Amino acid sequence: MRLDLYQAETARIAAEQSALLAQAKAILKQGRGLTPLEQGGVLHALQILIENAIGKAKQWLKASDQPVPVSGYDAFRALVNNKLVAPEDLPAWNAVIGLRNRLVHDYMNIGMDQITALLAEEKDQFVVRFLLRASPSDTM
Fold first, then answer.
1. Domain 3-132 in this protein, CATH class
2. Which residue ranges make up each domain of the chain?
3. pLDDT, tens digit, for every residue of 10-58?
4. pTM for the full model?
């Protein structure tokens, strides 16, 4: 797939999933807890956003004629090494990738209180901003 088409699709998915998370945030701000169905939607939206970001990182490396690692951690480390992501952002990316791994592999031990705190602190927007960057040359 052409990089411009891939990036347009990542932006579309980011907007879609971010809108779902915004609905959950609005519910939480009203003081109502999320239903089990809404909780599942939040977890899924976060997983999709993070997987989308990992895929985009790998596409950027491929477009830059760099080796494409299997690991999301390694992909973002390579983006930092290639000055496509700020070095100070690497710990946040590692945490986000760790969250994705827990969502997929350790889902029985996910605390929704931690997830709702993440949403309240707008930490999901870090991933969305990356996904909305049109190209690697855009400002970090």
1. mainly alpha
2. 3-132
3. 999 999 999 999 999 999 999 999 999 999 999 999 999 999 999 999 9
4. 0.92
